[in-house]
Structure formats: structure tokens, C-alpha cells
């Protein structure tokens, strides 16, 4: 059984982060060599099996890619938090940079323990990107001529502050994050270059997948059922408490025999507490996937 790579960053160590990232980048390297862009790399699409093997899932937004043909592609891809700024600006000609940017977000997320740019709208997302990664240069704006430039171009330039923001990260990780999160895709280099970066060449080295922590399997439907159960219990608890408050208010109006709160109320609250703990301590989720059949090497493959 596989589990989704979500919330793992709360407890992983640097050698484990390197192991996860090495597997992710190796999988992307294979995709790109086969002329495939994934276009939706995020934590819930990275599955980890009981042997610690990371599997790239959900190829529903993937597309074939030939850098020589320059065919127009849709910009409406990739979950917002992991979307390349060029796509937010309406680009229809792009390449491997869309996956490299997402991988950079994943790396920073694993090291920080939380999503680094959780925007709610496209405008807010670009604002968060520019605040962290700096706004594009005037030369970039002139060359790119992107459709949404006039809508999203900031009035004042933003200074890049990745090193300052992530000053507590291992020093070897910063050059890789800086490269992957380059505003100009031409500066992102390739996945192969990322795998040969200082981050993977310095100690602690990436651990063996088999030595990674074991996480209990969990399917997306299980998470939804837990959330729904917790919601129902909150509603029930709220109604019971409301009835209790009404009874107590009436007791002040006319003397009556005191009625203790129903024992069921305590039981409901106890169950609610358990459900809430489950929701917030669950280490992983397995998301249902749709996919196009892609042949992967033994170390990285599409879960089926």
C-alpha cells in the first residue's frame, strides 16, 4: 500500500529529504528524457510505498514535449501553490521549467515543514512569488511579452530574499533552491544538473529508501470519511451544547430540579477529540489517481 507524500516534512531529517528529492528528480529526469512534462508535481501526487520508494502519480495533466517544435500549450496547469510564475502570466510556450519550479517548492516545503507560497488566487500567488523570489527584470518583461503582463506586473520591483527567508536551511540546499525557483526559466537549468548539485554531493548523503520511516497506509476516501465524521460530530456536539445552555438559562427563570448534562455529550466530545487528533496527526494520504501509461525505471515508477 502506498501513501501520499503529505506532512512528512514535520519529522524528516536532511538525509531523508535528500532521498525523497533524489527519487523525485530522477523520476522527472526520466520523464523529460522521454519528452514528457508532468505539469502537476505536488505533495499529494508523490506516493511512497512500504519500501520507501517514491512514485510519481497522476499524469492527467501531462503532455508530450519537444523543445524543437515550440507548440503552444495551455497555461492552466499545475496546482496554484506549485505553479511557475510564467504560467500565471499566461505563457503558452514553456518547457521543463514547469516541473523544476514545482520540485523547488517541494524541496523548500520539506525543509520548512509547510508550503512556502500558499496563495488563494492567481494574483495573491504571484505576489507571494515576487516577495520571495523577486520580481522579473525590465529586460525579462520586454523579452517575454506575456499576455497577463499588464495585469500582474508589480508597480515597484521586489528584491529576491530566498537566502534570508531560508537562512536556517542547510547551506548546501540554498543554491539548488535558488536555481529551481528562478523567475526566468532559462536560469533553472535541467533536472540532471539538479541531481549533480552540491546538495546531493555533501554530507549527510541521501539515505537508502529502505531505511526511510514507515507510514501507515491511508486512502483519500479514508481522509474524506474522517473529515465528514468529525464535521457531523461537531454539529451534534454544538446542538447538544445549545440545548444544555437553553436548559440552564430556563433554570434561572423558574426553580426546577437540576438536570445533569447527558453522558452522551461527553462521549461525543471524546470521539470528536479522537477524530481531530487523527486528522492532524495523520502522516500521509493516498490520493486517487488518473494517469497516462508511462514506463518508469525500477526506482521511480507510476503507481497503478
Plain-language structure description:
With 304 residues, this protein is mainly alpha-helical. 45% of the residues lie in helices and 4% in strands. It contains 12 helices and 5 strands. The chain has a 3-stranded antiparallel beta sheet with strand order 1-3-4, with helices on one face. It has a two-stranded antiparallel ribbon with strand order 2-5. Helix 1 (14-33) packs antiparallel against helix 3, helix 3 (97-112) runs antiparallel to helix 8 (173-180) and helix 11 (220-253) runs antiparallel to helix 12.
What does the secondary structure layout of this molecule look like, with pairings?
Elements: E1 3-4, H1 14-33, E2 36-37, E3 46-48, E4 54-56, E5 63-64, H2 85-88, H3 97-112, H4 122-133, H5 138-144, H6 149-152, H7 162-165, H8 173-180, H9 191-195, H10 198-201, H11 220-253, H12 263-281
Antiparallel strand pairs: 1-3, 2-5, 3-4
Helix pairs in contact: 1-3, 3-8, 11-12
Q: How much helical structure, as a percent, in the residues? A: 40-55%
> Strand percentage, roughly?
under 5%
The domain tally reads 2
Sketch the major β-sheet.
Answer: 3 strands, antiparallel
Distance between the termini: 11 Å
The CATH class of the largest domain is identified as Mainly Alpha
Number of helices: 12
Number of DSSP E strands: 5
The CATH architecture designation of the largest domain is Orthogonal Bundle
Low-confidence segments, ≥5 residues, pLDDT <50?
256-304
Strand order of the largest sheet: 1-3-4
Structural class, by secondary structure, is mainly alpha
The CATH superfamily of the largest domain is identified as Transferase(Phosphotransferase) domain 1
Shape: globular
Average of pLDDT: 80
What is the fold named in CATH at topology level of the largest domain?
Answer: Transferase(Phosphotransferase), domain 1
Amino acid at each position: 500500500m502506498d501513501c501520499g507524500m503529505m506532512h512528512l516534512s514535520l519529522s524528516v531529517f536532511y538525509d531523508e529529504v535528500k532521498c525523497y528529492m533524489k527519487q523525485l528528480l530522477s523520476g522527472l529526469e526520466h520523464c523529460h528524457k522521454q519528452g514528457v512534462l508532468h505539469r502537476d508535481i505536488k505533495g499529494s501526487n508523490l506516493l511512497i510505498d512500504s519500501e520507501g520508494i517514491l512514485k510519481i502519480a497522476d499524469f492527467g495533466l501531462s503532455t508530450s514535449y519537444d523543445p524543437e517544435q515550440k507548440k503552444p500549450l495551455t497555461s492552466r496547469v499545475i496546482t496554484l501553490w506549485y505553479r511557475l510564475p510564467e504560467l500565471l502570466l499566461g505563457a503558452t510556450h514553456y518547457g521543463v521549467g514547469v516541473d523544476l519550479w514545482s520540485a523547488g517548492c517541494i524541496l523548500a516545503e520539506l525543509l520548512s515543514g509547510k508550503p512556502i507560497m500558499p496563495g488563494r488566487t492567481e494574483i495573491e500567488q504571484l505576489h507571494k512569488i515576487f516577495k520571495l523570489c523577486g520580481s522579473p527584470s525590465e529586460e525579462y518583461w520586454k523579452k517575454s511579452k506575456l499576455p497577463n503582463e499588464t495585469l500582474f506586473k508589480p508597480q515597484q520591483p521586489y528584491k529576491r530574499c530566498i537566502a534570508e527567508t531560508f537562512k536556517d536551511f542547510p547551506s548546501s540546499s540554498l543554491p539548488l533552491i535558488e536555481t529551481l525557483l528562478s523567475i526566468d526559466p532559462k536560469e533553472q537549468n535541467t533536472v540532471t544538473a539538479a541531481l549533480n548539485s552540491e546538495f546531493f554531493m555533501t554530507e549527510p548523503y541521501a539515505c537508502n529508501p529502505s531505511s526511510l520511516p514507515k507510514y501507515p497506509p491511508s486512502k483519500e476516501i479514508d481522509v474524506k470519511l474522517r473529515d465528514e465524521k468529525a464535521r457531523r460530530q461537531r454539529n451534534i456536539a454544538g446542538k447538544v451544547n445549545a440545548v444544555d445552555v437553553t436548559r440552564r438559562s430556563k433554570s434561572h427563570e423558574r426553580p426546577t430540579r437540576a438536570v445533569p448534562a447527558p453522558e452522551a455529550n461527553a462521549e461525543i466530545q471524546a470521539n470528536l477529540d479522537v477524530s481531530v487528533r487523527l486528522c492532524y496527526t495523520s502522516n500521509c494520504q493516498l490520493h486517487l489517481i488518473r494517469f497516462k501509461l508511462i514506463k518508469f525505471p525500477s526506482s521511480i515508477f507510476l503507481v497503478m
